[in-house]
Structures
1.
Amino acid sequence: MFYDLNIPYTTNHADLQRTLAFVAELGYNTIALSINLSGKLPTDLTSPIPSPLPFSIPPTLHILTRCTLTLTDPSQNHRLASLTTIYDLVAIRPTSEKTIQQTCLSLPTIDIISLDCSIRYPFYFRQSTLKAAIEKGIRIEICYAQGILGTGEARRNLISNATQLVRATRGGRGIIVSSEAHRALACRGPWDVVNLGIGWGLGKERAVEALSREARGVVVGAEMRRRSYRGVVDVIYGGEKPVVEKVEGKGKNQGAKGKEKVGNGGKRKAVDGLYAADVVDDVEKPPSKRELKRRAKARRAAAGGKADGPSNALQDSTEMKEDGDVAMAGFKDEG
């Protein structure tokens, strides 16, 4: 499955419908419609993306909602927790080195750090800063549409920033690639994007994961954080146990048909509504050696209470053997 997690939402539904249809034809399975916000958030937050969309969409396309918040002031409180309850994905677009550090180190409720790679940053991306964000489950996003339809300077900045991000993340760990295409002309197929990532320095496997595995991890992680307990324990409905009806035997013919597995896969037949194990339990078991010794002692005491000695010990063993033979004979006859 291929993901494109940044397609800007527009109120021109005709263009949006064409873009979604073209994206589905290119081979994408999941996309995210994005809304860009900046500055202080309003008190009443609502999503302008209608659900469901007022036009038909391809049946193979799964649509998510996303909010991209441009962060310009590190000291401003943007109430990110309220955004996670409205949108499926929350992304931050930092504009300075301080906001990048704040986003990577101290913002726990976001999913994506989306960098505008079409502009030139006056600083280098630090490996330790990006590594801290990736270890928390945040992914770094590179958008390619500005480099395709933009000016030559935007194309140069895209290549430079993407190459620097690949180096800072040690070969592209935690990087996802999205389009941010405002129209269908800026969209590219998954394998074209893979070739584009290889040109930035990504390995082929990393480039494929940037559109599939890493992007899927963002979606699953955001869903887990919304509906689970602290993003760790998720309670799901596992169904109900099937009701097993017990068939009571009413006669020999009906009881003889019932079977039950016992032991190591063996089977036993029912006899007159009772299982063979129940029948065996009713038969008197042979007495133990202790019981035989106790009986012999009781008979000896009743005979005259003779003192214990070698002859009495021999007599006890003889009596115990006779009692055991009698008990085993009776057990065989009853069986």
2.
Amino acid sequence: MQVASILSDLTSLRVCPPAAALALVTAHKSDKDSSNDDNDPDMKRANDLMTLHAAVKERYAHGGENPALTKAREDVAKVERELGL
């Protein structure tokens, strides 16, 4: 049951805007909770993931696709055509 809840939460974070997702991850901090969150590796990973996701989404929004990734995709498409896939 917890796995389904976690997957649902991750899906929600994925479809909302990066700023809103980051706000959800960091929301509702109280003074006593903030000291625990600073030492919580899961919360740190969630914050890092949301920051990375926002950076990648922002880069793609402004046409900043990595040229090496584009070339790799073209190479894969070429091999697929040659193999008749």
